[in-house]
Amino acid sequence: MKIAIIGGGAAGIMAAAAAYETDPSAEILILERNDILGKKVLISGGGRCNLTTGLRDIRTVLSRYPRGNKFLTKAMHKFPPEAVYAWFEDHGVPLKVEKDLRVFPVSNEGQDVMDVFKNIFKTAGVRVMLKKQVTQVQKNKDGFAISLKNQDSPLLVDKVILTTGGQAYRQTGSTGDGYAFAQSLGHSITSLAPSLSALFTQEKWVADLAGVSVEKAVLFVIPGADPGSHSQIPARAPLGRDDIKRVEGPFIFTHKGISGPAVFALSSLVAFESLSPEKPLTISIDFFPDRKLADVLDSIWFHVTKYPKKSLGNVIGALVLKSLAPRLCLSAGLNPDSIAADCSKKNAERLAQTMKGLVLHAVARAAGEEFVTAGGVDLKEVDPSTMQSKICPGLFLAGEILDIDGFTGGFNLQSAWATGRLAGESAIV
Ligand SMILES: Cc1cc2nc3c(=O)[nH]c(=O)nc-3n(C[C@H](O)[C@H](O)[C@H](O)COP(=O)(O)OP(=O)(O)OC[C@H]3O[C@@H](n4cnc5c(N)ncnc54)[C@H](O)[C@@H]3O)c2cc1C
């Protein structure tokens, strides 16, 4: 049995390792256009490689995938984060779970993750073929014919595992070629969109706060809110309303907008919504997600009346980050340099409203800097128990090429490992 794995990223290398572990006598080829395997694994997590999550409950893990979570259920049960953790440790990479439940090698070196595969492929019967760019995949009577750039005769194999990734960070080699291969073999590709990106805002004042990071906030979007109107924004994102996209977590102000885990998650939820200066997305930020509006108002009023001679900005700085206080006053229509004694109850209410719902308008995504591609090979056309194509027998698909994407926190590599492993094991049978 000869199996070609097209694309030597996370899904491809895990598929190869799994195929080898299932049947060491099989002939397994990895075709990779780059001169190394796992270019994206190496830059993941800022080079530290956040390879999975410390979450253990599979339902909770699956909830971190805005697209593809149902489809992923079987693969995830077979190779959950816990098993991924154990697998890498068994293969000589000690791991650690950080406070925010992201999992990294203890060494903080993504290279250690890649060395696991290097070692397996060195001793195993897996042939790693680097600098091999696939240009076409054709089904024939007995298997597949794979055409390579600058090579006359096609490679003939029995089965193909297609793991060419999405089209984010194209400089890593993931340019979306696999979509065309899948289409030529009969598959449909759903709409594609960038996901996990920073957002640019209409509000230019964000530049004054660039670098200010907020440890915990709730960000929510109300599609269709009139960008000019603030009155439509509820002080708290109503839970249970399907049209409200709501995320909780840390975020950071940037020169042009907002970024960080909560913003990435939000960008993922709005991946398919168009953003533009003419049609911005209205985002509301709650800086006190664990406190009621009345409670925040009480705190403001307490401080305002206790320190009447201090500036309002100073007083508010006792409740939120000091650097944020003047902006919150300004957004509430109040002068941060005015004395607290001049702050009426009505003004305090406006401040409390702003702290529970600072309004920003997202006008664009940080282009080309997204971490993943939302959309991909239509999941209806793939068997979730095996990752085999329902349209083209002998073809298996795994990783980001599928219409699956997750939030930041190790979820995208986790789905690549899980689907890659399942594809590798299934293809060998
Ligand atoms: C900057 C950045 C940081 C990230 N950090 C994290 C993180 O910390 N944790 C996390 O879970 N996820 C992270 N991700 C996302 C994660 O890295 C990807 O979702 C995951 O690597 C996808 O794996 P894959 O194997 O499906 O595809 P890829 O890793 O994209 O691999 C596809 C491979 O196919 C090859 N290929 C493509 N076309 C051809 C062709 N025609 N011929 C031959 N080879 C081809 C490519 O060169 C590439 O090596 C990050 C992404 C980016 C961009």
SSE layout and pairings?
Elements: E1 2-6, H1 10-22, E2 27-31, H2 39-43, E3 52-53, H3 58-62, H4 69-78, H5 81-90, E4 95-97, E5 102-105, H6 110-123, E6 126-129, E7 134-139, E8 144-148, E9 155-157, E10 159-162, H7 177-184, E11 193-195, E12 199-201, E13 213-221, E14 245-253, E15 257-259, H8 261-269, E16 281-286, H9 293-306, H10 312-316, H11 325-331, H12 345-355, E17 358-365, E18 372-374, E19 395-397, H13 411-428
Flavin-adenine dinucleotide (FAD) is lined by residues 6-12, 31-34, 39-41, 43-45, 50, 133-134, 163-165, 168-169, 173-175, 177-178, 371-372, 399-400, 410-413, 416.
Provide key terms for this protein.
binds flavin-adenine dinucleotide, FAD/NAD(P)-binding domain, alpha+beta, 429 residues, elongated, 19 strands, five-stranded parallel β-sheet, 2 domains
Structure description:
The chain has 429 residues and is an alpha+beta fold. The protein has two domains: 2-192 and 374-428, FAD/NAD(P)-binding domain (3-Layer(bba) Sandwich); 197-369, no CATH class. Helices cover 30% and strands 21% of the residues. The protein has 13 helices and 19 strands. The chain has helices at residues 10-22, 39-43, 58-62, 69-78, 81-90, 110-123, 177-184, 261-269, 293-306, 312-316, 325-331, 345-355, 411-428, and strands at residues 2-6, 27-31, 52-53, 95-97, 102-105, 126-129, 134-139, 144-148, 155-157, 159-162, 193-195, 199-201, 213-221, 245-253, 257-259, 281-286, 358-365, 372-374, 395-397. A six-stranded antiparallel barrel has the order 12-15-14-13-16-17. Strands 6-2-1-10-19 form a five-stranded parallel β-sheet. A three-stranded antiparallel β-sheet has the order 3-5-4. A hairpin with a 4-residue loop joins strand 4 and strand 5. Helix 1 packs parallel to helix 13 (411-428). The radius of gyration is 25 Å and the shape is elongated. Bound molecules: flavin-adenine dinucleotide (FAD).
